[in-house]
């Protein structure tokens, strides 16, 4: 390994880690959706890695196309910036719709009581929730859950801006082996950081009783995603 590649890889690792850590949209959606839908850690890990692959993969493909066609880095960064602006609005809209749906679900899921009379005439009060006891059963019978796939689509279409200048640096010297190494290292660090943050936080949630907030889980998930979207739009996160 040359000194130049060694420094480039150190830079790549640092940028990938900091970029992911300071971008809550990279991990908060998986944490809150997994909590709302009661996913196992293995299912949470699967969708986190899948979305991470889609996220970095689209930028890798764009970068490789740019290299093959000789497109200047400025044009590639413009395309990535444009993709970022569009996805920020889509991400925010997704969170807002999910928030509205979650609030509606929580409202419909209010506990209510029925009075039953036994054969001897004694009343018996039965409290239940229609959503939990009726709708949830049908969801398990074969209803396709589109939420994680919508999230995957958003991540796959969303840009990973820091990757482009990193891969273009060795590509400009026609060193395609180093270009590939940089792309792979950036992808691995990004996905590993996403997965680590998601799993640590998800495991931490399991240690705290949150029964009273359960009916608001989807609303909280939507609100969290919506706030991430606002952060992307107005704070550049």
Q: What descriptive keywords fit this protein?
A:
single chain, 9 helices, 237 residues, elongated, mainly alpha, two-stranded antiparallel ribbon
What is the total domain count? 1
The parts where pLDDT drops under 50 for at least 5 residues are 131-143
Task: Supply the number of helical segments.
Answer: 9
Sheet with the most strands? 2 strands, antiparallel
Global Rg:
23 Å
Strand order of the largest sheet: 1-2
- Shape descriptor: elongated
The secondary-structure element order is HHHHEEHHHHH
Q: Compute the number of strand runs.
A: 2
End-to-end separation:
34 Å
Commentary on this structure:
The protein has helices spanning 3-21, 28-37, 41-69, 73-108, 130-140, 147-157, 163-171, 176-205, 217-234, and strands at residues 112-117, 123-128. With 237 residues, the chain is mainly α. It has one domain (3-109, 146-234). The two termini are 34 Å apart. 31% of the residues are buried. Residues 131-143 have low confidence and may be disordered.
Short description, anyone?
By secondary structure, the chain is mainly α.
List the helices and strands and how they pair.
Elements: H1 3-21, H2 28-37, H3 41-69, H4 73-108, E1 112-117, E2 123-128, H5 130-140, H6 147-157, H7 163-171, H8 176-205, H9 217-234
């Amino acid at each position: 390994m040359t000194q130049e590649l060694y420094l480039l890889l150190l830079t790549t690792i640092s940028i990938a880690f900091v970029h992911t850590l300071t971008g809550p949209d990279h991990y908060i959606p998986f944490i809150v959706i997994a909590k709302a839908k009661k996913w196992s850690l293995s299912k949470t890990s699967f969708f986190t890695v899948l979305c991470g692959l889609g996220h970095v993969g689209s930028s890798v493909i764009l970068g490789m196309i740019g290299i093959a066609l000789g497109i200047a880095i400025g044009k590639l960064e413009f395309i990535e910036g444009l993709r970022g602006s569009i996805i920020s609005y889509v991400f925010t809209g997704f969170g807002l719709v999910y928030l509205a749906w979650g609030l509606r679900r929580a409202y419909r899921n209010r506990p209510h009581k029925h009075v039953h009379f036994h054969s001897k005439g004694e009343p018996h009060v039965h409290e239940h929730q229609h959503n939990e006891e009726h709708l949830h059963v049908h969801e398990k019978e074969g209803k396709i859950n589109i939420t994680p796939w919508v999230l995957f689509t958003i991540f796959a279409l969303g840009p990973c801006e820091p990757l482009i200048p990193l891969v273009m640096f060795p590509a400009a010297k026609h060193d395609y082996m180093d270009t590939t190494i940089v792309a792979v290292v950036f992808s691995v660090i990004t996905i590993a950081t996403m997965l680590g943050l998601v799993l640590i936080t998800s495991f931490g949630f399991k240690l705290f009783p949150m029964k009273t907030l359960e009916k608001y889980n989807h609303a909280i998930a939507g609100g969290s995603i919506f706030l991430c979207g606002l952060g992307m739009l107005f704070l550049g996160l």
